[in-house]
TrEMBL record:
Name of the protein described by the UniProt record: DNA-binding transcriptional regulator, GntR family
Record-annotated HTH gntR-type domain positions: 2-70
Molecular-function GO terms, alphabetical: DNA binding; DNA-binding transcription factor activity
Claim: Transcription is one of the keywords in the record: yes
Lineage: Bacteria, Pseudomonadati, Pseudomonadota, Betaproteobacteria, Burkholderiales
Organism of derivation: Pollutimonas bauzanensis
GO biological process assignments: negative regulation of DNA-templated transcription
SMART domains: HTH_GNTR, UTRA
InterPro entries: Bact_HTH_transcr_reg (IPR050679), Chorismate_lyase_/UTRA_dom_sf (IPR028978), Tscrpt_reg_HTH_GntR (IPR000524), UTRA (IPR011663), WH-like_DNA-bd_sf (IPR036388), WH_DNA-bd_sf (IPR036390)
Keywords (A to Z) from UniProt: DNA-binding, Transcription, Transcription regulation
């Protein structure tokens, strides 16, 4: 079933493109849109975030929401991520499609790559992340690894819910994600994924390896994602720590 915010996003995109909300005009408030389309304000806010990402609107406090363009500027998916919470939001803004699930035993080579102890049993979940507004090809292709015992608890839910896999694991086990360690490197798209992702083999891409640790510093998930350069960019915000300021 298509999420409500995606349905509303498509309606608003159509309204903007046909001139119901002309370029230079202001959109109704979130409350007014919620009442007009019979949805919650959270649904309106999520839809506006999608439309803002496409460059059709700009939003400023006390200035409202202004229509900037009648058509999307690009299909590139460009999150800005600086906290675990923002990373979680990035994950929920793209739809997950499951392409395969299997149980594996971690060998020495995989252990060195992923950080999982050799000889342990894990579940490998192969997924694609789709931008609902540009669904021709995936934004990212991922191999996600969770402990086999945890996987057995959530296997049915993987195809029923769009929740992040780490959230499903935490709900099933009572864990909390305390830390995510991320390694990013430039790679070529593997030949076996090129056709699925609509790219040429060895096309430029970024590889994200994320290791999720719980409150006891136990590794509970590893995700390896390939994201083609022509449809993804990544922004990190760094701030200088002022001298004498306390670190909370």
């Amino acid at each position: 079933m298509e999420p409500r915010y995606i349905k509303l996003t498509k309606i608003l995109l159509s309204d903007i493109s046909c001139g119901a909300y002309p370029v230079g005009s202001s959109l109704p408030t979130e409350l007014e849109l919620a009442e007009k389309y019979k949805v919650g304000r959270g649904t309106v806010r999520a839809a506006l975030e999608q439309i803002e990402t496409l460059g059709l609107i700009s939003r400023r406090k006390r200035a409202g929401t202004r229509v900037e363009s009648a058509s999307p500027r690009s299909t590139e998916y460009t999150p800005t991520i600086s906290t675990i919470e923002e990373l979680v939001q990035y994950g929920t803004n793209a739809e997950r499609v499951i392409h395969g699930i299997r149980n594996i035993v971690i060998d020495v080579e995989m252990s060195a790559r992923l950080g999982c102890p050799p000889g342990t049993h894990w579940m490998e979940i192969q997924t694609a992340r789709m931008n609902p507004l540009a669904p021709a090809y995936p934004v990212a292709w991922s191999h996600v690894y969770i402990k086999a015992a945890d996987g057995a608890k959530i296997r049915r839910l993987l195809r029923q819910k769009q929740s992040l896999i780490c959230d499903l694991v935490c709900e099933a086990t009572g864990s909390i994600v305390k830390e995510i360690r991320q390694t990013v490197r430039a790679v070529g798209v593997p030949a076996e994924l090129a056709q699925k992702m609509g790219t040429k083999p060895d096309a430029h891409a970024l590889e994200f390896l994320r290791q999720y640790y719980d409150q006891s510093d136990n590794l509970i998930e590893v995700a390896v994602s390939i994201q083609p350069a022509d449809r993804f960019s990544y922004t990190t915000v760094l701030q200088r720590q002022l001298a004498g300021s306390a670190t909370v």
